[in-house]
Each structure stands twice: as C-alpha cells, then as structure tokens.
Write a structure and sequence with these properties.
Elements: H1 2-21, H2 29-38, H3 46-69, H4 78-87, H5 89-98, H6 111-117, H7 119-139, H8 142-151, H9 153-168, H10 170-179, H11 185-193, H12 197-205
C-alpha cells in the first residue's frame, strides 16, 4: 500500500509541477514538436534532437519488460506502454502504482513478447541510443540548451521526464530478473548505476524469459 501511495503522489506531483511550476509554455512549441517528429531538424539544437529521440527509446525499453510484467497482472500493461510513447512517465506512473509485484512469468511467450525479449532488440536500442547521445554531446550547444530548459516548458518537462524514467526503471528490473531466474544483486546495482545505458546493457545480456508449460 505504501508503494502504491508513493507512486500515486509522485504522479500527481509531477503533473502539478509540469503545469503549474514549470516554465511557461512557448508559443513555438507545437512547431518545434512537429519539426522534431518529421525530421525537419535544421536550426534545432542537436541536444534537443537527441533528447527528443531518446524519449522514444525509453518507451521501447519499458515495453521490453512491461509486456512480460503485465502477464498475470489484474491490469493490462499495453495501454500504459502505448501511452508512454506520447507522454512518458505520465503514463507509466499509474501502472507502477496499480501493479502488484509478480516475480513469476506464466504461460508461453507470444510473438510480441518474443520480439521484445530478443537480445537483438536490446542491441538495436543500445546502438541507436549511443548514436543519439554522441550526436547530442558532440554537436550540441549546452548554453542554448540550458537557456531553453529555463524558458520552455516542453524542454524543461521533457528533461525531467527523461530523469524520472531513469529513476523508475529499477522498480521493474528486480521482477524482470526474477522472471529469468537471475537474482544476483550485484548485477542489479550495476545495471541501475548507469542511467539509460545500464538498462540497455541489461536488455542485451539478460537470459531468455522462463516459460511455464500448462499441464494437459
């Protein structure tokens, strides 16, 4: 119950902060989002481009564990996973509040879980994230990004959303490792110590999910 309340309070607090205390909305935000989404990146700070695209990587990372975690839960995971592609942690926090710890995967993997459970998916996400981070760090303008972080609600909240997604993932990692019979605490802390790339490495090296066969 304490865990559920904590996630609920965090969710409400994030909403209040985003719409009340964050910097005001910029009139050019819609145009910026449209250009970022359609690849019209000319004139946009590479750090913003990298961050925006990394916010598309995070939902894939979460989906790689949510669809497994959702098996056996009273609530379906897929609506929250799908919504996270648009609103990030705003969509995932309610699921984290409502789910129950569920260390055992039941049944067989369907086609989607097989794809998400594949190490090739983890490798693809890791390489894509590495390219984005390198692009942002090498070509980005940090002073301009800091100015936008202080004056643009979109950039400000997106940055906090990235940080929050990094901090929340360990709440699912322990159960996902248990699903695979991998309960080494040293590895758990290793994967959570490095933001984003720690969990991406986990997706690349984790053992396959342990399926259960229903007796005839």
């Amino acid at each position: 119950m304490v865990r559920k309340i904590a996630f609920g309070v965090l969710w409400l607090g994030f909403i209040v902060y985003a719409f009340v205390f964050a910097p005001p909305d910029n009139p050019d935000t819609f145009e910026l989002i449209k250009n970022l989404s359609t690849g019209q990146w000319q004139g946009i700070n590479p750090l913003v481009i990298a961050l925006f695209n990394l916010m598309g990587i995070w939902p894939m990372v979460y989906s790689a564990v949510l669809f497994v975690d959702g098996r056996g839960q009273k609530i379906a995971a897929w609506p929250f996973a799908a919504a996270s592609f648009a609103v990030g942690a705003f969509a995932l926090l309610p699921y984290l509040a409502l789910r129950e710890p569920h260390p055992q995967f039941t049944g067989q993997k369907d086609a989607l879980i097989k794809r998400l459970d594949s190490r090739l998916t983890g490798i693809f996400l890791t390489l894509t994230a590495a390219i984005l981070v390198a692009y942002g760090l090498i070509a980005g303008d940090w002073s301009n990004f800091l100015q936008q972080w202080q004056t643009s609600r979109f950039i400000h909240v997106m940055s906090l959303d990235f940080c929050l997604l990094s901090l929340l993932f360990p709440t699912l990692l322990k159960d996902d490792m248990a699903h695979r019979g991998w309960e080494n605490q040293q590895f758990f802390w290793l994967f959570t110590a490095l933001p984003l790339f720690g969990v991406l490495i986990y997706l690349c090296v984790r053992p396959p999910i342990l399926e259960t066969v229903t007796p005839l």
